[in-house]
Design goal:
Largest interface: A-B, 64 and 64 residues
Number of domains of chain A: 2
Structural class of chain A: alpha/beta
Distance between the termini of chain A: 42 Å
Strand order of the largest sheet of chain A: 3-2-1-4-11-10-5-6-9-7-8
Oligomer: homodimer
Order of helices and strands of chain A: EHEHEHHEHEEHEHEEHHHEEHHH
Strand content of chain A: 15-25%
CATH topology of the largest domain in chain A: Rossmann fold
Radius of gyration of chain A: 20 Å
Chain lengths: ~350, ~350
């Protein structure tokens, strides 16, 4: 038991906290060979643990008296709530008690707190939130940034490409990742100012990098699986993710209505549910915040217990496969450390909006 | 016959031109009570018309010797190809021979050419491309800009809101449209610089406008039908549209595979096809370029004959319902004309990338 890996969980973060968090923690403690440190209000967590049928699973409560709300600004959350479940959980990671941290809370607050309290990997200006999207060919595509940075500079996207490729190689097992830049036309001149400048930067660095920059990809390519990694600014990435969530729900609801009265409806609906689960971010959840010194994983606010458990697995695997060390040791990242930052990717904490 | 409305069609624009264009023109000439003026290479169009079984439908060829390619830069297309099907078709509109123009060609070139040769409505800095997306509740949501302007300023988005609301009211029949700003969080402070500034501008103008600005909406709201009009920059809008196209294809293909062997597969697949058609931009096509002095409608490069016919209907209806005059007469647009442009929405032709 003494050598069991410990993962810290912000038990008060999600929309329905702490119930899905506690249930997901119990799943993880049973199935993943980890001990879960639940940061939050002790009385509330004791009740939730009892209701979830806790007996001997390796769980420990880290008392935290405050909770960061979903609509709270990151600045306020980070500056004023010194005893929040977010802070206490991250502190366990910083002190080395935990090897990873998971939160389904306020994304902006988690990003700001992780950047401020844990710091970015030397050479990396800003962390980026990444998620693997399901694709037609079954390979999956890593999309980043999906919401850590609403306003980006070309050099930031250049770094996201490096971190995304390292993730694809180390965690997803892709030998030499194919990286694309999300734009609105395949030609390098198509897109907005940000993508045009980023395209030039990625092209310029391509020869020295352990991945292939394939150029621009379009929205229609995201779910086709034409590349392993797609890079974009956090505003666009977040819109892509949430439009997808909404469209999948709408399409599948319409189909459910269409099948309701059809012969063989039961088989059709069962197929529908299987496909739905693959596209439901609240189900498969667990987005790594790449570029932070230690593993930080952010889940959807509506994370189910299964999604919390999945996010804990992602944190564990990031630790076991030395993801953060791999990013830090990446020659491209080391090179960034040795050259002054240009194009605005200065190493600083994000604007706390 | 003399008073029959005439619509000019760029018959050489789309990916498979001129076949879908010619077939769509014949459908429109038969069903919509319009005469279609086909701009393009006369020999090629004669052959296509014969192959499509043309007999007495009101069709006329406008000879044009050049074609703007899909990957051509807008600058080059507009500056050098003076006898392109795009130019000749737009000229018929400008001269009053046609009451509307349709192209399934190079979007950037159509936008640039329409802006340069027809001009924007006085007070409007830049045109915006709009499309009605299907929603769960069946009302539909108008999304703009979906690709006319990759880089936008707050005042441009403010104008898009006004034009979108006029379209929703005049063409879609919505009494007092609800308008939302696409962002990555419902609170006004959430989003990127552009959305935060645009939010403030829309809020500031809200009291004097014939629509309700409901604030930020998120990606998940796009297909939920929570508002009538959603405003965004053309980069984001184009990504939304193309991600949707790709995701719908991927989801429906996966379902098709899942149903292939199921009992009642035939019924399920038929339901699937119905839903697919509603979400296939190449099928329902026909995006109005709002803010130009006369009706210009842009179709998907992969437009089917049905989509071309639909786009011709959109052009006809824009004329019959005085859409462009309504936008020009909108008090908010008139007010823009009387106050100097701020925040970068200067009346000029778009950067021709």
């Amino acid at each position: 038991m003494t050598s069991m890996l410990q993962i810290a969980l912000d038990a008060m973060g999600g929309d329905s906290a702490p119930v899905p968090e506690v249930e997901g923690a119990l799943m993880a403690a049973r199935d993943l060979g980890v001990k879960v440190l639940l940061a939050g209000r002790p009385e509330r967590l004791q009740v939730a643990l009892q209701e979830a049928g806790w007996t001997t699973e390796p769980i420990e409560i880290l008392p935290a008296s405050e909770v960061v709300a979903m609509d709270e600004t990151a600045t306020r959350a980070v500056r004023t709530k010194r005893d929040s479940s977010l802070r206490v959980g991250l502190e366990a990671l910083k002190q080395g008690r935990a090897v990873g941290f998971v939160s389904a809370g306020n994304t902006g607050a988690v990003v700001a707190a992780a950047t401020l309290w844990l710091g970015t990997i030397p050479g990396i200006a800003r962390p980026a939130l990444a998620t693997v999207l399901p694709t037609l060919n079954g390979r999956g595509t890593l999309l980043l940034d999906i919401g850590a940075n609403a306003d980006c500079k070309p050099a930031m996207l250049d770094q996201f490409a490096v971190m995304g490729a390292t993730y694809a190689e180390r965690i997803l097992g892709v030998a030499r990742p194919q990286v694309g830049l999300l734009s609105i036309g395949e030609e390098s001149v198509k897109g907005n100012e940000l993508t045009r400048e980023t395209h030039a930067l990625l092209r310029q660095h391509a020869a020295h990098r352990p991945f292939d920059f394939v150029g621009n990809v379009e929205g229609k390519d995201v779910y086709a699986g034409v590349v392993d990694v797609i890079v974009c600014d956090g505003f666009t990435g977040n819109v892509v993710l949430k439009v997808s969530e909404g469209l999948a729900t709408t399409l599948l609801t319409l189909l459910q209505q269409a099948f309701g009265s059809a012969a063989g409806a039961r088989d059709a609906l069962s197929g529908l549910q299987q496909v739905r689960a693959r596209f439901d971010y609240a189900e498969y959840g667990g987005a790594p915040l790449l570029g932070i010194r230690q593993p930080v994983i952010i889940g959807h606010g509506r994370s189910t217990p299964q999604a919390i458990c999945n996010a804990i697995r992602v944190a564990r695997d990031a630790h076991l496969r030395h993801l953060n060390h791999q990013i830090a040791a990446d020659p491209a990242v080391v090179a960034m450390l040795q050259t002054p930052h240009r194009n605005g990717a200065t190493a600083s904490i994000p604007s706390l909006a």
